[in-house]
TrEMBL record:
Pfam families attached to this UniProt entry: GIPC1_GH1, GIPC1_GH2, PDZ
Comp. bias regions, Basic and acidic residues: 1-10
Stated name of the protein: PDZ domain-containing protein
Positions of the PDZ domain: 134-201
Family to which the UniProt record says this protein belongs: Belongs to the GIPC family.
PANTHER family with a match to the protein in the record: PDZ DOMAIN-CONTAINING PROTEIN GIPC3, RGS-GAIP INTERACTING PROTEIN GIPC
Origin superkingdom: Eukaryota
Organism in which the protein naturally occurs: Culter alburnus (Topmouth culter)
Residue numbers spanned by region Disordered: 1-57
SMART domains linked to this entry: PDZ
InterPro entries noted in UniProt: GH2_GIPC, GIPC1-3_GH1, GIPC1/2/3, PDZ, PDZ_sf
PROSITE patterns named among the record's database cross-references: PDZ
Length: 333
């Protein structure tokens, strides 16, 4: 589906710059024989015409609710929260109903998950709250086999389930389920790394309860337990330009990431999963941007701390990321 770009025009009217004339020469004829009075005093040079800059065309995106709806059109958002608000306005629902969005697919496909970048021709599908369910989990090993991400607006959800893991054996738990509470403690508003830490801290051998909210599904998706693909995950957008959404500041239209950036982002995303149990392409992109022009790991760590200090990344993670960036830059990955 093509993204519309509504044309805008500039009615750029030049400033009216009258020529400055001396009142003494309003009538250049003067008195007969008065040669001096007949000589016109030169006027001041005209000021340059000022024109108003033409604004960039307004970016308009098509959107639908993933379980089925008419097509809506949205524009004017600069971050994920504003995007959800715009979608909610179109379909007359609450923004808090939206769990996450996928691009160009109505299915719960984590390869199509909307992160911080939207291709200018991408079609946005919003997945909204469906059934609520509770499951009891007994941690039989240190890792549950869950990879967590969040929607950028306070909802953490399951992005990957490791085959053969504790969670994989609970067949009612699915990829795309929003984790609403752990042992009746609401985690709405928590970031994905906070939720992953809470799950990691659950006592081994002691049962605990997860309250999950599954996304509402279209008829052709009912009964499916969607799995994330084993390869190719995290491929960036396919358009020539993307709308980059930022948690702070305005959205910007940028070129798609270079081959180096694309490989580095996916490698860092893999390291986030290994060390923290989360996947987050926007977070990985920010980490790569902080490190790509740095000369040594100390400068990289300082730059990363200035933008992502809240995460408290362990030193071993930072060194592995620095090594991965070097491997990608030197063609070893």
């Amino acid at each position: 589906m093509q993204q519309d770009s509504e044309k805008t025009t500039c009615d750029c009217e030049p400033m009216q710059n009258g020529e400055a004339m001396s009142p003494d020469v309003q009538d250049s004829k003067g008195s007969p024989g008065d040669e001096e009075s007949q000589r016109a005093i030169p006027s001041a040079p005209p000021l340059p015409q000022e024109t108003s800059p033409c604004p960039r065309p307004k970016l308009v995106f098509h959107t639908q609710l993933a379980h089925g709806s008419p097509t809506g059109r949205i524009h004017g958002f600069t971050n994920v929260r504003e995007l959800y608000t715009k979608i909610a306005e179109v379909f007359n629902i609450s923004a808090s109903e939206i769990l996450f969005c996928t691009l160009n697919s109505h299915k719960v496909d984590m390869q199509k998950l909307l992160g911080g970048q939207i291709g200018l021709e991408d079609f946005i599908f919003a997945h909204v709250r469906g059934e609520t369910k509770e499951v009891e989990v007994i941690k039989t090993e240190d890792a549950l086999g869950l990879t967590i991400t969040d929607n950028g607006a306070g909802y953490a959800f399951i992005k990957r389930i490791k085959e053969g893991s504790t969670i994989d054996r609970i067949k009612t738990v699915c990829i795309g389920d929003h984790i609403e509470a752990i042992n009746d403690q609401s985690i709405v508003g928590c970031r994905h790394y906070e939720v992953a830490k809470m799950l990691k801290e659950q006592t081994r051998g002691t049962p605990f309860t997860l309250r999950l909210v599954e996304p509402k599904k279209a008829f052709d998706m009912i009964g499916q337990r969607t799995r994330a693909p084993k390869s190719g995950e995290g491929k960036m957008v396919s358009g020539k330009e993307t709308l980059r959404l930022r948690s702070k500041g305005s959205a910007t239209v940028e070129e798609i990431p270079s081959e180096f950036e694309d490989k580095a982002i996916r490698k860092v995303d893999d390291l986030l999963e290994s060390y923290m149990g989360i996947r987050d392409l926007e977070l990985a992109t920010t980490i790569v941007e902080a490190g790509k022009n740095k000369q040594n790991p100390d400068d990289f760590a300082e730059a990363l701390d200035s933008v992502l200090g809240d995460f408290g990344f362990p030193d071993v993670f930072l060194f592995d990321v620095w090594g991965a960036l070097g491997d990608v830059k030197n063609g070893r990955i």
